[in-house]
């Protein structure tokens, strides 16, 4: 793996919810880096702060204390305009896949492409169809989400997250609503596409069955990152 600049670099990050007497610290002195092409899985009990950390990394919440750099851009004290620009480099995949029911699979993906002003509609359609084929949904391009299985819907969400070739994909419980085989298929697909494109993936999960796709597993306990170990289940790759 090439050790170039980290995609994510976090130093002494703290986070709090509430104000005054109700102020409560949720994240405590978080430090870690994620490099291009790495797949990092974050585990930990419910309420330990995983989603909070993921939303900070995604520029969906303001950094209050410490440093969080995404692709060498500092998010601490970044204004909304800068956060919006940084978010363009990130693909988001969540448990509730947030597909629009009145759009077909292709239109749901195409919408993400058309956020780029400089891509024509014709090109957006071509890219969306190619991405849906890559996730195995070629025959379902014109289906509406309601007529697809949970695993197929999640694959549309993956296509939508990856279609703009983001440097980073953030996934929060992407397999939670899926049966064992669909969950496995979905993460293996993410892994394959990440390998092909050098995308970094940071994935939060309670699903022990998918830990082997990670290069590194980090564990959050009460707002503290407990371990940051190489995944011994996985052989290293070039
Ligand atoms: N907007 C908020 N305002 C106040 N407290 C919050 C807010 N969001 C989360 N919390 C609290 O912060 C703590 C961490 O929540 P967070 O959602 O980050 O945990 P998590 O590890 O992702 O949990 P889960 O695995 O259940 O999704 C919890 O105690 C939660 O109740």
From TrEMBL:
- Give the source's domain of life in one word: Bacteria
Q: Cross-referenced CDD domains, in alphabetical order?
A: ABC_MJ0796_LolCDE_FtsE
* GO molecular function terms noted in the UniProt entry: ATP binding; ATP hydrolysis activity; transmembrane transporter activity
ABC transporter domain segment(s): 8-236
| Gene3D superfamilies in alphabetical order | P-loop containing nucleotide triphosphate hydrolases (3.40.50.300)
Query: NCBIfam families, from UniProt?
Result: heterocyst_DevA
The name on file for this protein is: ABC transporter
Native species of this protein?
Dulcicalothrix desertica PCC 7102
């Amino acid at each position: 793996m090439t050790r170039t600049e980290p995609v994510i670099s976090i130093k002494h990050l703290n986070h709090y919810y509430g104000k005054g007497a109700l102020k409560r610290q949720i994240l405590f002195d978080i430090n870690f880096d994620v490099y291009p092409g790495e797949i990092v899985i974050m585990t930990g009990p419910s309420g330990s702060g995983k989603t909070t950390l993921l939303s900070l990394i995604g520029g969906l919440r303001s950094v209050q204390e410490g440093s969080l750099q995404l692709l060498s851009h500092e998010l601490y004290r970044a204004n909304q305009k800068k956060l919006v620009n940084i978010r363009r480099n990130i693909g988001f995949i969540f448990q509730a896949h947030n597909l629009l029911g009145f759009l077909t699979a292709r239109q749901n993906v195409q919408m993400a492409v058309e956020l780029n002003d400089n891509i024509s509609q014709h090109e957006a359609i071509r890219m969306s169809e190619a991405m849906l084929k890559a996730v195995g949904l070629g025959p379902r391009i014109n289906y509406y989400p309601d007529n697809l299985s949970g695993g197929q819907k999640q694959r549309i969400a993956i296509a939508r997250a990856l279609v703009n070739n983001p440097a980073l994909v953030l996934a929060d419980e992407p397999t939670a609503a899926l049966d064992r085989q669909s969950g496995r298929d979905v993460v293996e697909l993410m892994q394959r596409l990440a390998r092909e494109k050098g995308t970094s993936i940071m994935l939060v999960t309670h699903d022990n069955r998918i830990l082997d796709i990670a290069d590194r597993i980090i564990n959050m306990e009460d707002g503290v990152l407990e371990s940051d170990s190489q995944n011994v289940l996985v052989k290293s790759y070039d």
